[in-house]
């Protein structure tokens, strides 16, 4: 039962997948999409879900620092519902506060250039979202 981790933004979706046992998350890719048109991500997501036999999705849920849900959090809720309906997956919203900042710090510590960081930051955030979810289930 593999899981997919998603860091959903307005223009990109960072994607990570778990191993079959649900112990580790690995970065897979970053999709470019238009948040106003979900069909721009449908085929790529379907291919990944089918190829990796995904049964559950963990969607980053960006809450405000005070715990309230703002526009980005609401967009994640809508996306998670769409995933469930479109692909018959169980979806989980997972608090992603500070994951992008933590991913940036990891990449900075690895001495990665700004240009390279920009290409992988969403995928790294998806890994952190999924891994923290997996860790909480151990």
Automatic annotation (TrEMBL):
Chloroplast recorded as keyword: no
Q: Which gene encodes it?
A: ruvX
Q: NCBIfam families annotated for this entry?
A: RNAse_H_YqgF (TIGR00250)
Q: Which organism is it from?
A: Halobacillus kuroshimensis
Q: What does this protein do?
A: Could be a nuclease involved in processing of the 5'-end of pre-16S rRNA.
Query: Which Pfam families does its entry note?
Result: RuvX
Alphabetized, the UniProt keywords read: Cytoplasm, Hydrolase, Nuclease, Ribosome biogenesis
Record-annotated YqgF/RNase H-like domain positions: 1-103
Q: Report the InterPro entries cross-referenced here.
A: RNaseH-like_sf, YqgF, YqgF/RNaseH-like_dom, YqgF/RNaseH-like_dom_sf
Q: What is this protein called?
A: Putative pre-16S rRNA nuclease
Which EC number(s) does the record attach to this protein?
Answer: 3.1.-.-
Q: What subcellular locations does the record give?
A: Cytoplasm
Q: Which domain of life is it from?
A: Bacteria
| Family assignment from sequence similarity | Belongs to the YqgF HJR family.
């Amino acid at each position: 039962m593999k899981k997919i981790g998603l860091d959903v933004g307005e223009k990109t979706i960072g994607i990570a997948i778990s191993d079959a046992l649900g112990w580790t998350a690995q970065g897979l890719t970053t999709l470019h999409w238009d948040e106003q048109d979900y069909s721009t991500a449908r085929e790529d997501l379907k291919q990944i879900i089918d190829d990796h036999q995904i049964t559950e999705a963990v969607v980053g849920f960006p809450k405000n620092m005070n715990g309230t849900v703002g526009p980005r959090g609401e967009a994640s809720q809508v996306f998670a519902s769409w995933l469930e309906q479109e692909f018959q997956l169980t979806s989980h919203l997972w608090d992603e506060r500070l994951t992008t900042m933590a991913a940036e710090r990891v990449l900075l510590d690895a001495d990665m250039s700004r240009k390279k960081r920009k290409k992988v930051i969403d995928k790294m955030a998806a890994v952190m979202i999924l891994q923290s979810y997996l860790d909480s289930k151990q």
